[in-house]
Amino acid sequence: MAGTDNFDADMQAYARDGAVCLRGAFDQSWVALAQEGIARNIEQPSPLFRNLGSQDGGFLSDIWSRRYISELERFCMESPAAAIAARALQSSKVRLAQDTWFSKLPGASVRTPWHHDTVIEGPFCSIWVALDPTPRTATLEFVRGSHAWGRAMMPRSYFSEEGDAAEQFYTEFHGDATDAVPQDYDQVPDIEANRSAYDIIGWELQPGDCVLFDARTLHGAPGNHLQHPIRRFVTRWITDESVLAPHGKDVIAALAAAGLPADLEVGKPVRGPLFPSITVLP
Predict the structure, then answer these.
(1) Residue 106 domain-assigned?
(2) What are the residue ranges of helices labelled H in 65-109?
(3) pLDDT digits over 204-255, tens only?
(4) Which InterPro entries has this protein been placed in (predicted)?
(5) CA 187 – CA 143 distance, rounded (Å)
(6) Which of 105, 121, 124, 161 could, after both became Cys, cross-link 58 (CB 3.0–4.6 A)?
Protein backbone atom coordinates (compact mmCIF):
# COMPACT_ATOMS: atom_id res chain seq x y z
CA MET A 1 0.00 0.00 0.00
CA ALA A 2 2.68 2.50 1.02
CA GLY A 3 4.38 2.32 -2.36
CA THR A 4 1.36 2.92 -4.55
CA ASP A 5 0.72 6.14 -6.44
CA ASN A 6 -2.69 6.43 -4.79
CA PHE A 7 -1.19 6.22 -1.33
CA ASP A 8 1.42 8.83 -2.21
CA ALA A 9 -1.39 11.12 -3.36
CA ASP A 10 -3.27 10.42 -0.13
CA MET A 11 -0.22 11.44 1.90
CA GLN A 12 0.01 14.66 -0.10
CA ALA A 13 -3.66 15.34 0.68
CA TYR A 14 -3.01 14.63 4.36
CA ALA A 15 -0.14 17.12 4.44
CA ARG A 16 -2.12 19.76 2.53
CA ASP A 17 -5.59 19.40 4.05
CA GLY A 18 -4.85 17.94 7.48
CA ALA A 19 -7.20 15.00 6.89
CA VAL A 20 -7.69 12.30 4.25
CA CYS A 21 -9.93 9.26 3.78
CA LEU A 22 -8.11 5.99 3.01
CA ARG A 23 -10.55 3.61 1.36
CA GLY A 24 -10.38 -0.04 2.37
CA ALA A 25 -7.22 0.43 4.41
CA PHE A 26 -8.30 -2.26 6.89
CA ASP A 27 -9.73 -5.52 5.57
CA GLN A 28 -12.70 -7.35 7.03
CA SER A 29 -10.58 -9.42 9.40
CA TRP A 30 -9.37 -6.25 11.18
CA VAL A 31 -12.88 -4.81 11.24
CA ALA A 32 -14.22 -8.01 12.83
CA LEU A 33 -11.37 -8.09 15.35
CA ALA A 34 -12.08 -4.52 16.48
CA GLN A 35 -15.81 -5.21 16.68
CA GLU A 36 -15.17 -8.29 18.83
CA GLY A 37 -12.78 -6.34 21.05
CA ILE A 38 -15.24 -3.51 21.62
CA ALA A 39 -18.05 -5.96 22.44
CA ARG A 40 -15.83 -7.67 25.02
CA ASN A 41 -14.65 -4.33 26.35
CA ILE A 42 -18.26 -3.27 27.01
CA GLU A 43 -18.70 -6.47 29.03
CA GLN A 44 -15.33 -5.99 30.74
CA PRO A 45 -14.85 -2.21 31.04
CA SER A 46 -11.51 -0.77 32.05
CA PRO A 47 -11.17 1.96 34.71
CA LEU A 48 -11.47 4.59 31.96
CA PHE A 49 -14.69 3.28 30.41
CA ARG A 50 -17.31 6.03 30.08
CA ASN A 51 -20.85 6.56 28.85
CA LEU A 52 -20.61 10.08 27.44
CA GLY A 53 -24.26 10.27 26.45
CA SER A 54 -27.27 11.70 28.21
CA GLN A 55 -30.74 10.28 28.69
CA ASP A 56 -31.41 10.23 24.95
CA GLY A 57 -28.91 7.51 24.18
CA GLY A 58 -25.55 5.93 24.83
CA PHE A 59 -22.22 7.30 23.66
CA LEU A 60 -19.76 4.69 24.88
CA SER A 61 -15.97 4.91 24.97
CA ASP A 62 -12.91 3.42 26.62
CA ILE A 63 -9.25 4.42 26.53
CA TRP A 64 -6.02 2.40 26.66
CA SER A 65 -8.19 -0.70 26.89
CA ARG A 66 -5.79 -2.68 24.67
CA ARG A 67 -4.02 -3.45 27.93
CA TYR A 68 -7.08 -5.47 28.99
CA ILE A 69 -8.59 -6.62 25.70
CA SER A 70 -6.41 -8.91 23.58
CA GLU A 71 -8.30 -8.22 20.34
CA LEU A 72 -7.63 -4.49 20.65
CA GLU A 73 -3.99 -5.11 21.55
CA ARG A 74 -3.54 -7.15 18.40
CA PHE A 75 -5.27 -4.51 16.29
CA CYS A 76 -2.99 -1.79 17.64
CA MET A 77 0.24 -3.71 17.26
CA GLU A 78 -0.33 -5.77 14.10
CA SER A 79 -2.82 -3.94 11.87
CA PRO A 80 -1.80 -1.50 9.10
CA ALA A 81 -2.28 1.42 11.51
CA ALA A 82 1.40 1.80 12.50
CA ALA A 83 2.56 1.73 8.88
CA ILE A 84 0.01 4.39 7.93
CA ALA A 85 1.11 6.56 10.85
CA ALA A 86 4.77 6.11 9.95
CA ARG A 87 4.15 7.47 6.46
CA ALA A 88 2.05 10.34 7.77
CA LEU A 89 4.62 11.32 10.41
CA GLN A 90 7.57 10.62 8.09
CA SER A 91 9.27 8.42 10.65
CA SER A 92 10.26 4.75 10.54
CA LYS A 93 9.56 4.49 14.26
CA VAL A 94 6.27 5.60 15.80
CA ARG A 95 4.75 5.41 19.27
CA LEU A 96 1.20 4.47 20.08
CA ALA A 97 0.04 7.42 22.17
CA GLN A 98 -3.45 6.13 22.76
CA ASP A 99 -6.04 3.60 21.69
CA THR A 100 -9.68 4.42 22.10
CA TRP A 101 -13.04 3.62 20.57
CA PHE A 102 -16.39 5.34 20.30
CA SER A 103 -19.82 3.80 19.92
CA LYS A 104 -22.70 6.21 19.40
CA LEU A 105 -25.86 4.20 19.83
CA PRO A 106 -29.07 5.06 17.94
CA GLY A 107 -30.62 8.12 19.51
CA ALA A 108 -27.36 9.44 20.94
CA SER A 109 -27.87 13.04 19.88
CA VAL A 110 -24.89 14.50 21.74
CA ARG A 111 -22.58 16.22 19.29
CA THR A 112 -18.81 16.00 19.55
CA PRO A 113 -18.04 19.71 19.16
CA TRP A 114 -15.31 21.31 17.15
CA HIS A 115 -11.89 20.91 18.73
CA HIS A 116 -8.40 19.75 18.01
CA ASP A 117 -6.08 17.59 20.08
CA THR A 118 -3.47 19.65 21.91
CA VAL A 119 -2.18 17.52 24.78
CA ILE A 120 0.84 16.49 22.68
CA GLU A 121 3.23 18.96 21.08
CA GLY A 122 5.17 17.77 18.05
CA PRO A 123 4.29 15.07 15.47
CA PHE A 124 0.84 13.69 16.28
CA CYS A 125 -1.78 11.99 14.08
CA SER A 126 -4.96 9.97 14.53
CA ILE A 127 -6.43 7.07 12.55
CA TRP A 128 -10.20 6.56 12.90
CA VAL A 129 -11.33 3.21 11.45
CA ALA A 130 -15.00 2.91 10.54
CA LEU A 131 -16.61 -0.28 11.86
CA ASP A 132 -20.14 0.47 10.59
CA PRO A 133 -21.55 2.09 7.44
CA THR A 134 -21.57 5.82 8.11
CA PRO A 135 -23.29 8.31 5.79
CA ARG A 136 -21.79 11.74 5.21
CA THR A 137 -24.41 13.30 7.50
CA ALA A 138 -23.17 11.26 10.49
CA THR A 139 -19.44 11.25 9.92
CA LEU A 140 -16.48 13.01 11.49
CA GLU A 141 -15.88 16.42 9.87
CA PHE A 142 -12.80 18.63 9.52
CA VAL A 143 -11.96 22.23 8.77
CA ARG A 144 -9.65 21.78 5.82
CA GLY A 145 -6.17 23.21 6.40
CA SER A 146 -6.78 24.24 10.01
CA HIS A 147 -3.76 22.18 11.13
CA ALA A 148 -1.63 24.84 9.45
CA TRP A 149 -3.20 27.85 11.18
CA GLY A 150 -0.39 27.85 13.72
CA ARG A 151 -2.82 28.42 16.60
CA ALA A 152 -3.50 26.11 19.54
CA MET A 153 -7.14 26.30 20.56
CA MET A 154 -9.50 24.86 23.13
CA PRO A 155 -13.30 24.98 23.24
CA ARG A 156 -14.85 27.20 25.89
CA SER A 157 -17.11 24.32 26.86
CA TYR A 158 -16.46 20.98 25.26
CA PHE A 159 -20.02 19.68 25.25
CA SER A 160 -23.19 21.71 25.22
CA GLU A 161 -24.46 20.72 28.65
CA GLU A 162 -21.93 21.84 31.23
CA GLY A 163 -21.47 19.28 33.95
CA ASP A 164 -22.63 16.28 31.92
CA ALA A 165 -20.57 13.11 31.62
CA ALA A 166 -18.91 14.13 28.37
CA GLU A 167 -17.90 17.53 29.73
CA GLN A 168 -16.47 15.94 32.84
CA PHE A 169 -14.56 13.44 30.70
CA TYR A 170 -12.96 16.17 28.60
CA THR A 171 -11.95 18.29 31.57
CA GLU A 172 -10.56 15.19 33.29
CA PHE A 173 -7.85 15.06 30.62
CA HIS A 174 -7.59 18.71 29.56
CA GLY A 175 -8.51 20.79 32.58
CA ASP A 176 -11.32 23.30 32.98
CA ALA A 177 -11.39 25.44 29.86
CA THR A 178 -12.38 28.49 31.93
CA ASP A 179 -9.27 28.57 34.07
CA ALA A 180 -6.70 26.03 32.87
CA VAL A 181 -6.12 26.99 29.25
CA PRO A 182 -2.58 28.31 28.80
CA GLN A 183 -2.53 32.01 28.03
CA ASP A 184 -1.17 31.45 24.51
CA TYR A 185 -4.17 29.29 23.55
CA ASP A 186 -7.13 30.69 21.63
CA GLN A 187 -10.77 29.70 21.92
CA VAL A 188 -12.15 27.52 19.15
CA PRO A 189 -14.38 29.69 16.94
CA ASP A 190 -18.09 28.89 16.77
CA ILE A 191 -17.81 26.91 13.54
CA GLU A 192 -21.21 25.24 13.80
CA ALA A 193 -22.96 28.62 13.94
CA ASN A 194 -21.17 29.81 10.80
CA ARG A 195 -20.42 26.68 8.76
CA SER A 196 -20.43 28.47 5.40
CA ALA A 197 -17.40 30.51 6.47
CA TYR A 198 -15.23 27.39 6.69
CA ASP A 199 -14.06 24.73 4.24
CA ILE A 200 -15.61 21.70 5.97
CA ILE A 201 -14.79 18.24 4.64
CA GLY A 202 -15.91 14.71 5.51
CA TRP A 203 -16.60 11.39 3.85
CA GLU A 204 -19.21 8.68 3.71
CA LEU A 205 -17.50 5.64 5.19
CA GLN A 206 -17.79 1.89 4.84
CA PRO A 207 -16.34 -0.61 7.34
CA GLY A 208 -12.58 -0.76 6.81
CA ASP A 209 -12.28 2.80 5.51
CA CYS A 210 -10.33 5.09 7.79
CA VAL A 211 -9.79 8.78 8.24
CA LEU A 212 -6.20 9.83 8.86
CA PHE A 213 -5.78 13.31 10.27
CA ASP A 214 -3.29 15.63 11.85
CA ALA A 215 -4.31 15.99 15.49
CA ARG A 216 -4.25 19.79 15.07
CA THR A 217 -6.95 19.75 12.39
CA LEU A 218 -10.18 21.06 13.88
CA HIS A 219 -12.76 18.28 13.88
CA GLY A 220 -16.20 17.46 15.24
CA ALA A 221 -19.05 15.00 14.70
CA PRO A 222 -22.85 14.99 14.88
CA GLY A 223 -24.96 12.67 16.99
CA ASN A 224 -26.31 9.36 15.73
CA HIS A 225 -29.77 9.66 14.18
CA LEU A 226 -29.46 6.33 12.35
CA GLN A 227 -31.02 2.99 13.23
CA HIS A 228 -27.71 1.28 13.98
CA PRO A 229 -24.68 2.06 16.15
CA ILE A 230 -21.77 4.04 14.75
CA ARG A 231 -18.54 2.47 16.00
CA ARG A 232 -15.03 3.72 15.35
CA PHE A 233 -11.74 2.31 16.56
CA VAL A 234 -9.09 4.98 16.96
CA THR A 235 -5.33 4.87 17.34
CA ARG A 236 -3.28 8.01 17.99
CA TRP A 237 0.38 8.11 17.03
CA ILE A 238 3.44 10.21 17.84
CA THR A 239 7.22 10.05 17.35
CA ASP A 240 10.15 10.14 19.74
CA GLU A 241 10.25 13.93 19.27
CA SER A 242 6.70 14.45 20.59
CA VAL A 243 6.37 15.91 24.09
CA LEU A 244 3.63 16.35 26.67
CA ALA A 245 1.99 19.79 26.38
CA PRO A 246 1.87 22.33 29.25
CA HIS A 247 -1.60 21.23 30.34
CA GLY A 248 -0.56 17.57 30.26
CA LYS A 249 -0.56 17.42 34.04
CA ASP A 250 -4.26 16.62 33.78
CA VAL A 251 -3.45 13.48 31.76
CA ILE A 252 -0.88 12.41 34.35
CA ALA A 253 -3.41 12.85 37.16
CA ALA A 254 -6.20 11.05 35.28
CA LEU A 255 -3.97 8.07 34.49
CA ALA A 256 -2.82 7.82 38.08
CA ALA A 257 -6.42 7.97 39.33
CA ALA A 258 -7.29 5.07 36.99
CA GLY A 259 -4.38 2.99 38.31
CA LEU A 260 -2.32 3.58 35.17
CA PRO A 261 0.70 5.54 36.38
CA ALA A 262 2.85 6.68 33.48
CA ASP A 263 6.39 8.00 33.36
CA LEU A 264 5.30 11.35 31.94
CA GLU A 265 6.54 14.87 32.55
CA VAL A 266 5.25 18.11 31.09
CA GLY A 267 7.54 19.27 28.30
CA LYS A 268 9.38 15.93 28.13
CA PRO A 269 9.22 13.25 25.42
CA VAL A 270 6.50 10.62 25.83
CA ARG A 271 8.01 7.32 26.96
CA GLY A 272 7.13 4.22 28.94
CA PRO A 273 5.26 0.91 28.51
CA LEU A 274 1.89 2.62 28.11
CA PHE A 275 3.22 4.14 24.87
CA PRO A 276 4.92 1.31 22.94
CA SER A 277 7.31 2.02 20.10
CA ILE A 278 6.89 0.24 16.75
CA THR A 279 9.53 0.21 14.03
CA VAL A 280 7.99 0.02 10.58
CA LEU A 281 10.05 -1.74 7.94
CA PRO A 282 10.30 0.02 4.55
Answers:
(1) yes
(2) 70-78, 81-89
(3) 999 999 999 999 999 998 877 777 889 999 999 999 999 999 888 888 988 9
(4) Phytyl_CoA_dOase-like
(5) 15
(6) 105
